[in-house]
Amino acid sequence: MSSERSRRGLMLVLSSPSGVGKTSLSRRLVADHADLDLSISMTTRAPRPGERHGREYFFVTEQEFTALIEQRAFLEWAKVHNHHRSGTPREAVMESLVAGRDVMFDVDWQGAEALAAAAPEDTVRVFILPPSMAEMVRRIHARAGDSEAMIRRRLETAKEEFTKWSDYDYVIVNDDFDLAYAELAHIYHAERLKRRRNPWLGDFVRTLLEEGVE
User: Is the torsion defined by CA of 106, 111, 116, 122 positive or negative?
Assistant: First the structure.
């Protein structure tokens, strides 16, 4: 991007209950847009098979995580299922925004709320809804590896998450994936064009006004 048209990046935050499709939507949007990066969280849990430090997560100890909390190094952090802690490192995200790069977040409503409180002018929140509870249940059951107890817990959690939809800037019903993706892409493109994220426009308009007309 030309330095004359430098822009400030945005934080695109997606939330939904499990089984609604936010992860598939967010990964496709990142894959299709060179200026959009997926936020990499820091976590105290152990790496799973195939995971690599700095790719899926930054893996740290409980002591290191606690020290970073005390240093106010996170935009948001939370305890996950009462087992481990995960959070979003502040410095890397802020550096991306200043450089004109956008950052995608795949987080729950609490994470979205914390991100919006930490950077209200930079945050765009999108909530994804299923077309029906029955369809969401079907999608959750189709996922490999979830026990019946985990599925019941996810469904109970979903009821609370649904009540947070009105806190978001945009809401998409993921009935048809391609249509939901197109709506998400439209939101992203429009938010990139907002005046406050394009400070170069002031100088550009002044240049237009100074140009002579033949």
Answer: negative
